[in-house]
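Q: Fold this one first, please.
A: Sequence and structure below.
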Amino acid sequence: MFKDTNQRIYTHQTDKGLRIFSIGSQLPEQVLTDQHTTGVAIEWNYGGEMPGEDMVLLIRILDRSLESLSKSSHHIMTHSVLGCGAREVYYYTSDYKQFMADLNKCLSHLPPLPIEIFHNVDPEWTYANSIRELAEKG
C-alpha cells in the first residue's frame, strides 16, 4: 500500500477563478504505477467559484468518507482539486470493479450525493502528471 501523508497545497488562478490543489509530495514507486493503470475521478459540481460554508462542510464529510479507499492496496489517491465550481478527487486503481465496490461501501452511510465518476485507462499516469505540472506552475 502507498500512502503519501505529505500533501502539498498549490493555488492556481484561472479565468474561471481560483483552484486549490492538494497533491502528494511524491509519486509511488514504478512497480505500483505499473499495476495501477486506471484513473478514476470523483467529481462534485457545486457551481460558483468557491463553495459556500455549508458546501465546504459537505465536501469535508465526503473527503473523510473517501479516506478509507486509500487503505486498500488496489487504490492510490493522487490529488484533489477545489474551485471553479467543482471538487475533484482522483485515484489510480488496479481494479476498477473493486474500486466501485469499495466506493459504494465507504459512502453507504451518507445520503445520495450529486457526484459523478469518470474513469479511463491511463498506464502512463498522464492526467496525474499534468495536474502536478499545472499546480507547480501556479
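Q: Good. Now the second chain.
A: Here it is, same layout.
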Amino acid sequence: MFHERMKIAPLITLFFLYISSIYSARTAYSCIHPQWCNNALVALKKCRPLNFTLKEMTPDHNIDPHHMELSPKQIKLILSMPNLILPHSHLAPWLKGIKEQRKQLNQTTFEFPSEQEKGRPFEHFWLHPSRLCEMQKMMEKTLCHSSGPISCDSKQQWASLKTLASKWQDHLFVLTHDALLPLLKELKLKTLVLNDHHEGELDPNALKSIYRSLQSKTAMVVINEIGNPIPDNLKIQLKNFPQITINPQGGHPARPQKVLLDFIKQWEGLKR
C-alpha cells in the first residue's frame, strides 16, 4: 500500500503543477465601461476560454461617463493595469489623458472603436442590434486576432422591434436623453429628445414642443434614462402616458444584449 501511494504521489504533483501553470499563464485584461467589458468578455471566452482574466475598472456606474472625474488613486490603478480595453476618448473625454500616459508607460491599450472607426453611431452601440454586432466583430477580430468571417445574428431582435414599431407609429416618443434616438429613428418613429447633450439642462425648444404636444393631446410614450431626470412639474404632466425606464450604462457582467432586451420587454408590456 505504501509503495502504491509513493507511485501515485508524483502523478498528483504533476497534475497540480499542470493546473497551476495554466492559471499562472493566464493573460490579464482590464476594461472600462460595463458594455465594453461585456463585449470583451464574450470575445475572450471564444478564443481564450481558460487562460484570461478580465477586471472591470469603471470608477462609478452612477455617473455619466462624459463627466467622470477620477481620483489620483484611481488614475494610478488604471495606469498600472495591463491590456486595458476602453471606449474611444470622444465618448469619454477624460480617457484621452489616460491613453496618452499609458502610451508613455508602454502599456498595451485596446480602443474600440478605433481611430478609423470612431463616430457617433457607436456611442450607444449596445442599444442598436446591428451596431452591437459590429462592435462584437471589432473586438473579436482585435482581441482574438480573427481573420475569417465572424458570425453575429440580430434578426430576431429586429423582428421584435419592427413589430412593436408598427403598433406605435401614431405615438410621439419623448426621450429624456438620446441613447435610443438612433434606434427609434431607424424604426421611423416620431421622437422628441429633451436633452441631447450632457450638461443636465433641458433643450428650450424641446420643452416648447412638449408643451404644445400636451396641449394638442398628442399620444406619447415617455422613455426615462436613469441619470437624466426631468423637472418634477413636467414629470407630473407626463405621468399618465406609457413609461419605459432604462439604465443606459447597464452592468457587468451581463449579456451584451441585456439593456436592449430589457427595453424590448418593457415596450412589449406597455398598454396603449
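Q: Anything worth noting on the second one?
A: The longest strand covers residues 220-225.
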